[in-house]
Amino acid sequence: MYRLATLAIALVTAVSWSAAASEGQRFAEDFSQGSAAWRYGNAVQHTDAGGLAIGAHLPQVTLAGTAVNPENLRSFTAAVRWNFGGKEKRRLWLGWGKPFEWSAFEECAEQVAVSTDGSVSVFAGGKEIGAGRIAVSDKGDASLTVGRRSDGIVLSSEGQETVFALPPGAGGAAGYFALRAQGLDRGAPPLRILGVEIQCGGNAPPLTETQRTAENQRWAALKLRGNWEALRKFEQHLEAETAAGRWGFATDLRIEPGLVKPGEKVRATFRCAGPTPPRCEARLEPDFLSERPGTPQPLELRWRETAGGREAVVDLEPKQCGNWRIVWQVGDEQLSRVFGVVDRGYAVCRFLVTNDRAFSKPNPEPAAHDAIHDAGLAADHWGGSEWTSPFSRTPESLLEHFRRRAELRHRWGDAFIPLCNANWIIPGCPDNNLWRFDDEVQREGLRQAARLWDLLGLGPLDVLAGYTFGHNTPPVARSVGIKMLDSLCQWQNWRDGADDNAWLINHWGAPTVPYYVADDDFRKVAPGRSIVAFTQSTTSNVRAFTIMTLETQPQLSFMRSRPAADMAESANIDRFETAADLLLAEAACEDEPAFLSIGLENFVDSADWNEANRRGVSYLVRQARTRKLVFAQAADIAAYFQRHYPRQPENWFYWPDIYAGLAHSYKPRQLPDRIEMSNAQFHSV
Q1: Residues of the chain above pLDDT 70, percent
Q2: For the CA atoms of the chain, what is the radius of gyration?
Q3: Cα dihedral sign for 101, 104, 109, 111?
Q4: What are the beta bridge partners of residue 382?
Q5: Counting beta carbons within 10 angstroms of the beta carbon of residue 179, is it exposed (0 to 12), middle (13 to 18) or buried (19 or more)?
Q6: Are residues 71 and 204 in contact, defined by beta-carbon separation less than 8 angstroms?
Q7: What three-state secondary structure class fits 615?
Q8: Distance CA 448, CA 23 (A)
Q9: CB–CB of 98/109 below 8 Å?
Q10: Reduced to 3 states, what is the DSSP secondary structure of residue 351?
Q11: In angstroms, what CA-CA distances link 622 with 291, 572, 581, 628?
């Protein structure tokens, strides 16, 4: 039985409301035939004979406009039956009046919450306007009828009706109807909606899929407007922290370009925000990783006054191939920058640290990036926030998140690259796939990302990582100054996640070398210069047989063939070393440098993965002592391409099966040897 609320705010007498919304659209389903009406983002929520399941993974759903036009829901009567799915404290929320299908549930103008103990709370305008109780069976079954009319919210259960008057100014705005479950633990049984019937006050036709998509694009554009306000607040906070001496650096060292041929000019720019400290010494270390390095040479710094302080410029013309380093001792700090000099027969290797939990731990064990720095080198990194949009953070949280990253940029010249899927640029976006958004949404989001990188001192934003680029992304990225699209997953065409909001990665057929991107398909090579794309890890098409392979990603040396608690990747690092030896030997036979990407990943915080990554880095550094191997970063590789290649150069790989003896998914114990070739006309295996 439904008992009246103890909160008497605006509670009025029960009335009959059966005539409400009697002339409009009627929506009804018991889920016996399945349903595509309930969505979260672009994922259709799972339904079966047991009803609509709402679990911890996706705890909310919205009735799509393709099922019920939101204009019809200015007034309505909705009868909902459900099973809580557990006796622990759970809540089912019913909400309506949110402006877009993809708006957060909290944006519902009015809400009703029902708990497993039968208690009911009614909310309007963000405030509780009443409460009561309904019956819940021992098995967790419950039902409630909710009505929305111009003067109030009507609840009905077991023949009892109660009207909760709305606060002044609460009109009957149209909007979407949504359901949300609260209190569900991962792995626990879901809450199940057993039936829904809605009698609407309006009778507008359902939206078409085209109209629905347009609505979602409008939602995204509005969210991006809010990003500019977030950037404004962050800039104010940054200025205050800088003025207080809690953010920023008084010195900077830039090397440009970072990858050259012998005899090309390299410019080193030294900057001080104020007077140069008493100890200010710079030196050049030619071919510093070689077993016979060149003699360190002091650099004369001729300072001149600038608007921002003082600046010294040194121009170099290195004639010898190898890894070169500039070390600047300025006061109590030491800055290090490297550049590579390459010619025919060289391999150019970049290190990409993707997701490494070491960055989120207070006192981590030495990680992959530490091994890179121990060698005097610099790394590329993802930005470390691939699941949280920076525009949804507070200014304080945003600054703290990037503090350690800014320090590595300053000390070693590390580059930080945003993994820019849709949820990164659009706060609260339920769909991670960037390719689903139009040009203007992508362009605006990338402009904001570039501005954020400049404010943080991580700019310019030359490189953009992403798993979900669309064919329209390359020209959009190029229009805002981005030079390279990074972290492509060659030979991958599968969904990385539980539903269609997850990364829908289709990079099948893209070359595994850096390549100029075609206008019509980002996986194809352009006939001439274009924006450059590069892989997360250099790999063969062994990935067509199993996803647990990447020849140049050390923590996949054993294809994750053992349980997470007992990995054996580091014990099988010889497979990575074999791949490295082969690639270096092949590079020595090519007409142009061979560009390799080494992926370093540890998103599970595995000691074994960490050890495998460190061993992989150390092995390559040792090879640079005697072999034609230089290290560079993605932005420098992109710039090298633009300077030296009017069209795609030709590269080839000979791929034996370094995983021979291991079987996984569709991979047999032995694959045949393969030859892969890429040039301006074709990519073939």
Answers
A1: 96
A2: 30
A3: positive
A4: 417
A5: buried
A6: yes
A7: helix
A8: 47
A9: yes
A10: strand
A11: 9, 18, 12, 12
Helix, strand, coil % (nearest 5) of the chain? 25, 30, 45
Span of 149-153, 516-520, 580-584, 609-613 with lowest mean pLDDT? 149-153
In this structure, is residue 235 part of a structural domain?
no
Per residue, the 3-state secondary structure of 188-240, as one string, reads CCCEEEEEEEEEECCCCCCCCHHHHHHHHHHHHHHHHHHHHHHHHHHHHHHHH
Tokens of 645: 């290649």
Residue pLDDT, tens place only, 255-284: 999 999 999 999 999 999 989 988 999 999
Distance of alpha carbon 375 from alpha carbon 366, whole angstroms: 13
Domain count, the chain: 3
Q: Same domain, yes or no, for 352 and 328? A: no
Q: What is the CATH classification number for the domain harbouring 274?
A: 2.60.40
What's the confidence (pLDDT) of residue 625? Answer: 98
Specify the pLDDT at position 171. 67
Distance CA 87, CA 446 (A): 46
Q: Cα–Cα distance between 502 and 432 in angstroms, integer?
A: 6
Average pLDDT of the residues in 178-195: 94
Q: Which domain holds residue 93?
A: 11-207
Please tell me whether residues 483 and 562 are part of one structural domain: yes
Mean pLDDT for the stretch of residues 474-488:
98
Specify the long-range contacts of residues 610-613, CB closer than 8 Å, at least 24 apart. 610/358, 610/365, 610/367, 610/368, 611/570, 612/554, 612/555, 612/557, 612/569, 612/570, 612/573, 612/576, 613/367, 613/368, 613/371, 613/554, 613/555
Nearest residue to 139 via CA among 182, 82, 91: 82
Could you give the CA distance from residue 82 to residue 572 in angstroms, rounded to a whole number? 52
Q: Which of 210, 127, 146 lies closest to 17 in space, CA to CA?
A: 146
Whether the CB-CB separation of 121 and 110 falls below 8 Å is answered with no
Residue 394 tokens read as 């507070």
| The amino acid at 30 | D
| Tokens read off for 354 | 């993707």
Instruction: Give the angle subtended at the CA of 680 by the CAs of 675 and 682, to the nearest 5°.
Output: 45
Q: Do 515 and 678 touch, CB atoms closer than 8 A?
A: yes
- Whether residues 554 and 520 share a domain: the answer is yes
Residue 155 CA to residue 6 CA, distance in Å, equals: 15
On whether both 291 and 355 belong to a single domain, the answer is no
Q: Is 187 left (phi over 0), alpha (psi -120 to 50) or beta?
A: left
Based on the fold, state whether residues 667 and 641 are members of the same structural domain: yes
Alpha-carbon span 81 to 21, nearest angstrom: 20
Share of the chain above pLDDT 90, in %: 87
Q: Higher-confidence residue: 166 or 465? A: 465
